[in-house]
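Dear support,

I submitted the protein below through the web form. The confirmation email said the job was done, but the results page showed an empty box. After a refresh the structure appeared. I'm attaching both so you can tell me whether what I see now is the final result or a partial one.
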Amino acid sequence: MTKLGRPKKYRIVRQDPKISHFSPRGRPGRPDETELHMDEFEALRLADYMARNQREAAQSMRISQQTFSRILKKAHIKIAEAIVHGRIIKIQGGSYVVSHQGAEVC
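What the results page shows now:
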């Protein structure tokens, strides 16, 4: 079955994460996992870590400010749920392209 609607644009990610998954301590057994897509990771990095406003961050990722806002909101929800429920956070997947062109240094 063909997916209807507009094709998803690739998001520009300036750098790969240094760590691709986080695991809670003090939780017996194998906890569930939450998958954080690369574009969500980049949105968190730009908005929360680098304190960019949404317009600047959206331009960096070459997406609209409204799309950036939706991605950031999804990322915040995923992180909060993972922390509250003690889940592993895996950073992987999504529609993205890594571009170091014009990348800022952290």
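Response: this is the final, complete result; the empty box was a page-load delay. The mean pLDDT is 85.
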